Amino acid sequence: MPAAPAGPTLHKEAGLFRRGFRRVAGVDEAGRGPLAGPVVAAAVILPLDWGRQGVDDSKRLSADRRAELAEVIKAEAVAWALGRAEPPEIDRLNIHRASLLAMQRAVQGLEPAADYLLIDGRFGLNLGLPQEAVVKGDATCLSVAAASILAKVERDGLMQVLHRQYPAYNFAANKGYPTLEHRLALERHGPCAVHRRSYGPVAQMALSLDGGWAGEQAPALGREAETLARALLERAGMQVVEANRCTAAGELDLVAWDGATLVFVEVKARSGREHGLPEEAVDQRKQRRLAQAAAAYLAEMGPPVPACRFDVVALEFGSGPPRMRHLKDAFRPE
Question: What are the tens digits of pLDDT across the range 69-92?
Answer without folding.
Answer: 999 999 999 999 999 999 999 988
